[in-house]
Predict the structure of 3-dehydroquinate dehydratase.
Amino acid sequence: MKLLILNGPNLNLLGKREPEIYGLETFEDYFRKLQLKYKNVELDYFQSNSEGAIIDKLHEVGFSYDGIVLNAGAYTHTSVAIADAISGITTPVVEVHISNVHQRETFRHHSFLSAVCKGVILGFGLKSYDLGVESFL
Ligand code: DQA
């Protein structure tokens, strides 16, 4: 089983960024824990602040990996291009969010990605990624 965790813009700042919303743990620390927990899963991780790089990564892994756990950050609410990339690949994608976006500003309530993803997990803090990985097992 080969899975990719794909993080979008500003998620490189986890641990420092708005800790009251996103927590104090860095993603690198959390990812190491995930790798230890899911020893039988080949878990890769990629983060980019740029929409094009996220799309390129989806194209790169989207015909060979078993699943992608995607937190597209703010691109979730804006990007038809990422939605098209998800539609164009064969690997299933699960959309995750750390925060419960439905408790936040109304512009965060709409996702261009949900309709083309296999499922959506949100609001469980970093554990949302754990549940995203679990969904493929
Ligand atoms: C987020 C929610 C988005 O609205 C926001 O732009 C993010 C993070 C989350 O994980 O809760 O960058 O995707």
In short: The pocket of DQA is lined by residues 10, 71, 73-74, 76, 97-99, 101, 108 (CB under 6 Å). The CA atoms of residues 5 and 18 lie 21 Å apart. Strands lie at 2-7, 42-47, 67-71, 93-97, 119-122. The two ends are 8 Å apart (CA to CA).
